Amino acid sequence: MAAAGPPGGTGGPSRGTQGAGRVASRTGPAPAAPGEGARPGGAPVSGDGAGSGPPAGEKDPRPARGAAHSVPGSAASGAPPAEESYAAARVRLLDAEGGAPRRAALARATDRWLAGLLHGAAGGAVSGSVSGAGPGDARGLRGVALVAVGGYGRGELSPRSDLDLLLLHDGSLRPAGLAALADRLWYPVWDMGLALDHSVRTSAEALKTAADDLKVTLGLLDARHVAGDAALTSALRTAVFADWRNRAARRLPELRELGRERAERHGELQFLLEPDLKEARGGLRDATALRAVAASWLADAPREGLDRARARLLDTRDVLHLTTGRATDRLALQEQDQVAEALGLLDADTLLREVYEAARTLAYATDVTWREVDRVLRARGGRRGAARLRNLIGSGQRGPAERTPLADGVVEQDGEVVLARTARPARDPVLPLRAAAAAAQAGLPLSLHAVRLLAAQAPPLPVPWPDEAREQLVTLLGAGEATVQVWESLEAEGFLTRLLPDWERVRCRPQRNAVHRWTVDRHLVETAVRAAALTRRVGRPDLLLVAALLHDIGKGWPDGPGGHSATGETIARDMARRIGFPPADVAVVATLVRHHLLLVETATRRDLDDPATVRLVADAVGGRGTLELLHALTEADALATGPAAWSAWRASLVADLAGRVGAALAGEPAGAAEERAERAPGAAEERLAVEAWRTRAPALTLRARTEEPPPAEAELEGAAGTERAGALPLGVELLVALPDRPDALAALAGVLALHRLTVRTAELRPLRLPPGVADGLEPAPDRTGTPAGAGPGPAAGPGTPDDPDTPHVLLLNWRVASEFGSLPAADRLRADLLRVLDGTLDVPARLAEREKAYRPRRRGTPGPPPRVTVAPGSSQHATVIEVRAQDAPGLLHRIGRALEAAGVRVRGAYVSTLGANAVDAFYVTDPAGRPLADRAADELAGSLQAALV
């Protein structure tokens, strides 16, 4: 709040006068209007702070209630004038070591000085104007009190802070005497060159003003008695707090809106190169607002680290005041080196990292606190409505809080993600990532209690991570904007550096570049957020998302010969191994990090018509899949950097370059999918195939897959005498053989969806029986009446027999995981599959019923729209349809039904779920076993996309 100077003056002393605490000359006094709360110049004044007392951990600067101050240098003692003593005390304190003790000492010295001023003012006032006060009897004052409010009330006096003062009276004083008393108080303050924010009010006037002005309320919540009638101050504080608590349900939303408006004007402190320590989001105003919320008794902030964060911002502001000689809260670039040196920090970057860390703590506490306020207010409203309903229906019982399952060990309750009652954090190292991924995908926050419980109990992940942990990380990163709040929750409790120790090097690291709007770590997360919207463009969204998260990780280390990209390649390679990627994927991630600037720099600085330019990029990326990923990463990186980093012109240049390089790489051999399909069947597959052929019914096996520790890790554990909790589950391998029929894919996918099994990977391929195996085996009649061998034979293609008349079955190899931990028995799966195939179990109807039951409570984060494309030239024997979509229960079942409805035959399928993204390829033919014509293929892609929207 702006401070007022004396009438006719400039509002404050010169830099030199204020810095030395010297006495400034008085210019043109004019009396303050009693009861109007006016400063000279006519502007109404109020305190601007909030909270209910001094900062936690600091000594309360308030004097004992009713006690008189001993003021050195008072007129009664014959010592030097009080203002000279105070000036000397200010000089001494401002030369002393800073921090909370100095702020409290400065407040105490100011208290003593102001008490002396009130003492002298009462003694010199018109006789009888102050009831019961005789000359020199400050402790006998009745009916008037001097009250510190706002920052001064909290004892947070920085070197150039203004003094927030309220002259409180009971209304019994004569106006002339009150005006004279106010003049004798305010003018010595101005003469000292101090900024003053003052008002003169009765308690009733103060409460009325507070009711109309939230900022006045916030100041009064920090009211602290300085001198005079302590009973007046005590009564005012009691009334202010009672009113604040009674009206909390109405006034807290006002306070929240005030913070939002301030954040829009001043930005987020933790990302600004020249932050406003007070007004920006995560600054001192927010710390004050948290105290006000706590004073309402409605909700409280998470206290861990708050005092330290607030003290860091106050310490920085103190030094900034002394360095500039001004009452400023903006940490300008030109001041940062000097402020860092005065605080004993290495450099300006270290200063900003500490300031950002403090702001991040306050911003997170603010978010958590307002969520809790919303929850409490929502519950109050709900309880009132429920009570009315119970009265109407005659039931006095309250139902339990509704809990919606989201993942194994994770549920939604009251708008937050919490742990299920059956969760066992101490035995489930993947639970933190699973809970985070579920929260982000649902667009919900992780509850503070859940995060802290996980931080306290969850064991560390083994290195390298198990597959599920990696998949959950990818799912978290793929949630888009909802990723950010969940990521912040994990960071606030130290999870990120536990999971990825190298992340500490980029946390809160500033980027002194006008183009960048985020710190390094937030830029990495924002790049992953932008990349999530591009996952339909790539075949490996998991590699895109992780590369986005790591692409600038090298900025946490000193630049080597190749800059942060070369440094980051080494770090990213280690981190990708830790996350559990296989060597080939580690190499791709490292390449993406190493060359994440290659496309945009080449496209904007080189001649694209020069074959050497295209050859250079082609040699660097090595393959079309990597090029596809690099193109998406380039766009995501630029979009996350800032508006100046990406434009339609840049996008067109990069797309042109990527197209040229892709054409140069088009001579690559066919993808690995067909090679994978042509592998020889194993013994278990052959046994199932024979059984399915003989019985003309599905045959299946269900086997849990586990991951044992690497040999080196196992040796270390054995040598240390530690015990491993057991092999980590990777999912369940489901192997199914069944007669060749068009509805096989949809049927099995539907059964898995009914049993809440998530498909992680899947392959479908025709499998011919080994020579001689089928000899003498007459297939039994099909349960649905389809004779063996009926229907068109499959064309030669991936996994298909060259001779359509060769005995064959469909083989489906799936890796599935249970959504909620419990696995169905194999015989139940087979029984339900038989029911679906013979038409007695209606999967779509069952899935629709379940979706209807959950839809009102399911608010998941919407992903990019599905994308269905034809991959021309990918196979000589079939048409390849590629589907990229947001994973959802029953997705593969819907795809299978759409393919069946289109009248095509699925000759091969390769399904992958990468985080929250489904990346599938289907090899289809017409009923005669031939690839589809171009027009028919395009129509199929269109109808399939329409079925998924």
What does this structure look like?
The chain is of the alpha+beta class. It has 4 domains: about 15-245, Beta Polymerase, domain 2 (2-Layer Sandwich), CATH 3.30.460; about 250-380, Nucleotidyltransferases  domain 2 (Four Helix Bundle (Hemerythrin (Met), subunit A)), CATH 1.20.120; about 400-500, no CATH class; about 690-949, no CATH class. It is about 50% helix and about 10% strand. The chain is built from 34 helices and 15 strands. An 8-stranded antiparallel β-sheet has the order 8-9-11-10-14-15-13-12. A 4-stranded mixed β-sheet has the order 3-2-1-4, with helices on both faces. The longest helix has about 45 residues, at about 350-395. The protein is elongated and about 120 Å long. Mean pLDDT is about 80; it is low at about 1-85, about 125-140, about 670-680, about 705-730 and about 785-805.
